[in-house]
């Protein structure tokens, strides 16, 4: 027999299991908040900007072809900045206890479209160290690029600075709690419908008709407790009489 569920039945199920849905939402949001505040390590960020320009010439002005050449070189520079040739020197200068591969994971290099500015971003659990790594990468790259590519068209445009009141860029506790609440809400709704589906008890006359395939021809109305008490009193008096 095909079973259909009306929109009204869905709302009845949600209202019936509302406590479960609310509880799962609150628990999931609380767990996400505890993990964000107490378990996850705060990560700080520092950025420095590098300008890729044309080597200064005495009598010739810049042309659009010169700028286009510089823009094409930026993609190569993005790779060179994160290469072991640069990162190993950064590790050596700062005395970092990590490999070029692990440092590479902390570094992000971006450049805006049609822009000659390259932004080097470093994320680290220590704000001061993030600033030092970003600035050292820019300095080492500026020093090494003439030897690596036989060019001299890189300058540090804006070094990373130590903020007065550093704040972590991640984790974002409020965002994590919101995501946790949504997951808890969905989980609670899913469990509510699952419990309703697994509940096979007979509750209404419609359930009886569906199980037996026979129409209901009569119903016994529930007897209020007050009427039961009165009937018991009358029966007791009759016995005594």
From TrEMBL:
UniProt cross-references to Pfam families, sorted A to Z: GNVR, Wzz
Residue span, Polysaccharide chain length determinant N-terminal domain: 3-94
Keywords: Cell membrane, Membrane, Transmembrane, Transmembrane helix
Occurrences of domain Tyrosine-protein kinase G-rich (ranges): 142-194
Transmembrane segments: 18-44, 174-195
Topology within the bilayer: Multi-pass membrane protein
Protein location: Cell membrane
UniProt xrefs under PANTHER family: FERRIC ENTEROBACTIN TRANSPORT PROTEIN FEPE, TYROSINE-PROTEIN KINASE
UniProt family annotation: Belongs to the CpsC/CapA family.
Entry protein name: Capsular biosynthesis protein
Source species of the chain: Bhargavaea beijingensis
Source taxonomy: Bacteria, Bacillati, Bacillota, Bacilli, Bacillales
